[in-house]
Amino acid sequence: MNALADRFGRVATDLRVSLTDRCNLRCTYCMPEEGLAWLPKQDQLTDDEVVRLIRIGVERLGIRDVRFTGGEPLLRRGLVGIVQESARLAPRPRLMLTTNGIGLERLAEPLRDAGLDRVNVSLDTLDPARFTALTRRDRHADVLRGLKAAAAAGLTPVKINTVLMRGINDDEAPAMLRFALDHGYQLRFIEQMPLDAQHQWDRHTMVTADQILADLEPFGLQPDSVSRGTAPAETWLVPGRVDAAGEPARVGVIGSVTRPFCGDCDRTRLTADGQVRDCLFATKESDLRGLMRGGATDDELAAAWQVAMRGKRAGHGIDDPSFLQPARPMSAIGG
Ligand code: SAM
User: Fold this and answer.
1) Exposed e or buried b per residue across 191-226, where buried means at least 16 C-beta atoms within 10 angstroms of its C-beta
2) Which residue, judged by its Cα, is nearest atom 1 of ligand 1?
3) Peptide bond between residue 128 and the one before it cis (omega within 30 degrees of 0)
4) What whole-number distance in Å separates Cα of residue 74 and Cα of residue 77?
5) Cβ < 6 A, ligand 1 pocket
6) pLDDT tens, 72-123?
């Protein structure tokens, strides 16, 4: 088996597939109110093309985890079929989904039946009015119903992704953790990264991992003895609490900016228009769609994917004064 190895000894086994750049929310830190210039339909991979590239990743390049994202992946009409085809691959990859939860109430069971293993649901606030202000859509109740449906369907552990922002929702860390513990969800705080379409990210006002952990002090978090491996989240145990499976409850912090984990990165990314990215912050992409539509064989596509990953930089460089924000925003890369 050929691997997606880079020059620094890292091997990518975790594929993030963006299924669309569109979203039904307009989170202020992600997208402008009017949305973005969406990818033309003909530029997007068809369902068959997506499945073909996933198959090449799994069968020839050692991909073991596939996470569907976007944009909002539940908006992709062919999602259930794509999951079903991916679940038939050998060796069967673990299949996960990152979603805003809107529509998950209806889709959780079909997705589980198709072979989806787990979901991460993004939720930044427990306050419905704040949710509406933050996302510019009145859909808080839909997200809560989506979370419940995911747990009921067994897409567990159901994880919640929360981005805290100063003056907006940074007072909610303890309440979010209590909510997650009470419902058996696993909470992950994500440091805000410079990936917004509006380029308004500010290093000086972002809520850091240190700040989040200070806010969670009343919970008496304990270091987690389970090795983090290549996972982006550092996790802590919450004394006296168990999760839905009866295991010690955990909370995670993804400190992409102040506690980067690039040295252990095992991710490769595929955009909805078939471009390979070796990093969220990559400024270069490799065009697999063009090759595929030009008649490339599976071997040729696998080789091009390998070449694309060889060039992965040692780190994302956010702390480097010469750091350049990538041209595509998070929603178009696949978060
Ligand atoms: N629509 C799906 C969702 O809401 O989960 C998937 C895509 S969304 C871009 C994935 C995650 O990225 C969400 O949890 C969102 O909060 C997070 N996100 C968006 N912009 C971000 C940024 N600048 N820094 C950190 N996380 C961000």
Assistant:
1) bbbbbbbeeebeeeebbbbebbbebbeebebeebee
2) 72
3) no
4) 8
5) 23, 29-30, 69-70, 72, 98-100, 122, 161, 163, 190, 192-193, 195-196, 330-331, 335
6) 999 999 999 999 999 999 999 999 999 999 999 999 999 999 999 999 999 9
CA of 334 to the centre of ligand 1 (A): 8
222 alpha carbon – ligand 1 mean position (Å): 27
- How far from chain centre, in Å, is Cα 191? 13
Model-level pTM greater than 0.85? yes
As a three-state string, the secondary structure of the chain is: CCCEECCCCCEECEEEEECCCCCCCCCCCCCCCCCCCCCCHHHCCCHHHHHHHHHHHHHHHCCCEEEEECCCHHHCCCHHHHHHHHHCCCCCCEEEEEECCCCHHHHHHHHHHHCCCEEEEECCCCCHHHHHHHHCCCCHHHHHHHHHHHHHCCCCCCEEEEECECCCCCCCHHHHHHHHHHHCCEEEEECCCCCCCCCCCCCCCECCHHHHHHHCHHHCCEECCCCCCCCCCEEEEEEEEECCCCCEEEEEEECCCCCCCHHHCCEEEECCCCEEECCCCCCCCEEHHHHHHCCCCHHHHHHHHHHHHHCCCCCCCCCCCCCCCCCCCHHHHCC
Give the tens place of pLDDT for each residue, 304-316.
999 999 999 999 9
The protein residue with its alpha carbon nearest to ligand 1, atom 5, reads 99
